[in-house]
Amino acid sequence: MNSLWDDQESATYTSDLAQRVYTSRLLGRDSSLVLHGGGNTSVKISETDIFGDKEEILYVKGSGWDLATIAAAGFAPVRMPHLLRLTQLETLSDLQMANELRRATIDPNAPAPSVEAILHALLPYKFVDHTHADAIISVTNTPDGLDHVGTIYGDQVVVIPYVMPGFDLAKLCAKLFPAQVGPQTIGMVLMNHGLFSFGETAQLAYERMIYLVSLAEQYLTERGAWQIATPAAIPPVRHLRQELAALRHDISVAAGGPMIVATHSDAQSLAFAQRDDLTKIALQGPATPDHIIRTKRVPMIGRDVEAYSRAYAEYFATHAATARQPLTMLDPAPRLIVDPELGVATVGRTVRDAAITEDIYRHTIEIILRATALSSYQALPAPDLFAVEYWDLEQAKLKKGGKPPIFTGEVALVTGAASGIGKACVESLLARGAAVVALDLNPIITTLFGRAEVLGLQCDVSDEVAVDQALEATAKAFGGLDILILNAGIFTANRKISTLSLAEWNRPFKINLDANLIFLREGYPLLKLAPKGGRVVIMGSKNVPAPGPGASTYSASKAALTQLARVAALEWGADNIRVNVLHPDSVYDTGIWTEEMLKGRADSYGMTVEQYKTKNVLRTEVTSHNVGELTAELCGPLFAKTTGAQIPIDGGNDRVI
Ligand code: ZN
Description:
By secondary structure, this protein is α/β, with parallel strands linked by helices. The chain has a seven-stranded mixed sheet with strand order 3-2-1-4-7-6-5, with helices on both faces. Strands 14-13-12-15-16-17-18 form a seven-stranded parallel sheet, with helices on both faces. The protein has a four-stranded mixed sheet with strand order 8-11-10-9.
């Protein structure tokens, strides 16, 4: 591990707090040191208050901030004397401690100080850095961890046995640190947790962190326990979407709401999942307290959600019996699945949650493999894991949560999603919390939305093989399918029936009808497993109730599609799948309509463009966004009792009314 310190760059950070920001970001740049809000840093600064009195302030990382992107505002300024006095108390619950940290903050708008603030305060150095470095955890999470730490560091570090983060840990450090500190001390190892380093300058504290972590890396390297080769693994060969959707269904039932299940079948995940000693090494639990909160106690090995939930309930009952206060069991669904055929699957209420769990578990896998190569992996005992999972600070966070968006944890697929109505549908679904698979013939779709909640795939919807692959990719990325928006379609040039060739007649049917049959047929088994029931919205057309001359192929194909949807509504009602049709009209902000075309059309009616766009009963313009919003709402609770309906969205059409 190399220091990222840069003299030129650091010179632009001129105050103590700015230096604190700079090296915090350096730590945050390396995911083997800190991950997703993990780790924390501080600086002690003398300040003068409004009365002219000097006070010692600890600027410590605030919760909700990530070291990689932290700014000065991310540090909570807390009065040092208050923090130090707290360590003299015999007992303090962690909720009381969090409250005291808040009370001692000099800026009411500051973020909540890190729960490790007291620990930072009692280390008598200006700059203090704390990470959960992979190398340290790999060494400490072994039965002979203390010996390894002793060999690596000698008297360069103070060693603190594992205690849960919070007041008890601060108390223990307040006792052990002064007793162990010596002239060589430049850091502090917290067993099964992480590492502290400190110094009088930001550079010194940071470079000591790098030095200490490097020593552990070197120690592991010398013992063949740092770079672990990934053995060849057998990749999945079958179609898995049906089984994944069934698995996600069971997990969602156990979790009490729809969940995202993201499957990772890369070489590293598969090789880990296919190890002979998997049960022994993977079932011990997360690597650090920081990891426990998101990944839960242990992964589920295989796919028996019921057995996992039962085991979790037993684990809860056993440990809750000895808790100080009555506890409510969290949902018993797994957050991690390790399966020889799937590899590693991560579960979350949102795509982001599942992705964070993935990141953490990739590091956990490395820690487990390194510890195993060094001697053998040993996680914390179950009561300690339980104590963190049911930490009162975590329980308090759960109570605070507001109402999530209506499609949280749900998966939608939209065809023709690169522009116009399809794109608007994707946006409306995203705004309501769904994960979306966006399909389009246009390759721009793969990067168009630029966010993890969207899987953009180039797909020719009339190609059965391509659709099959898209649905496999959907289940792999998010676990299943809840909402299907069949929007892709083509409008064929005006042609009178008297001159229509059979080829021209057939062309729109291939896209507007046949392609949608494929989606309905292949989507059905997945929609049937949607935790809250499947929903399908089909983009019909005003031309169904009110066709126009010259548009026989388009009108007939959309009419046939509407009839197909009505039959699907009848056939699938018993499976709790709703199928509804929208008939949009006069939506001009789509890719098909250029300013020039609009002008031409308006001229032919003797109208201005504005008049032409609003030539409907309500004299209103209908936008793609309007259609996207109605499409999303049609899939939501408002329309929970509606199926087989055809709803116009056209500003009112006197031929339809
Ligand atoms: Zn920590």
